[in-house]
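Progress against Task 2.4 (sequence-to-structure conversion) is shown through the following example record, which the project officer requested during the mid-term review.
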Amino acid sequence: MAIVSTEVAGATRVRPRKSRTLLILNVVSVVAGLAIWWGLSLAGLQFPTPVEVVSAAWSMSLDGTLVTDIGASLGRVLAGFALGSVAAVLAGFLMGWYTIARGLFEPWIQFFRTIPPLAMLPLVLVLMGIGESPKIFVIFLAAFLACVISTYQGVVNVDRTLINAARVLGADDGTIFARVVVPASTPFILVGMRVGLGSAWGTLVAAELLAAQAGLGHRMQSAQLYYDLPTIFVGIITIGILGLIMDRLLMLAGNKLTAWQESR
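Structure tokens generated for the chain above:
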């Protein structure tokens, strides 16, 4: 008992120390990146300096442009990503658990996975018009295709010993699915969602280049016509920050949901 308590206490001390080290390394990395950026802009490359980008962001914030664009882009990403993730989890569970569903769905999912969602954009615009629906749909498609295979693999990779042990103890299929398959698949689902989030943001920018009245991608395209590099950098950095925040939120949720799993 004393040995176990010592091991737990040691692990508890290691985690904060590891977190502090990672935080320090993150800060060093960001500072180094800013220094390199500033150096490249001063070296004569056509980069705006960080000060110019901050000034442009401040001006866009004062006139409400940046807030409007963030709201439009974030709303599209959240809608498409949420719908895509839910559909991917449901389809992945069905494919992994039922052979019939796997046989019916997998060929189509594999077929569409080889087609970039952006290649569907012209067809979607023709069929759905130039409103919000086509933009959200292509984001949905990107998130769905990135997440569904990961969920499917999570289900089929569940240790059969765990399932057989649950059956021996008298558990029915519903209980096994809820108590064994879902928890064991959660890490795979979260990885798929993180990949899908990146795909959603990447698809959004391209979708907003066509027939959008507001959004970060639309603003970057407009700035490109006037060779407004600071505004373009504002859009790029804003997308990166928003994507990073959402990814970290998914990581925190994953840490809570998979606290039982050992990690390095």
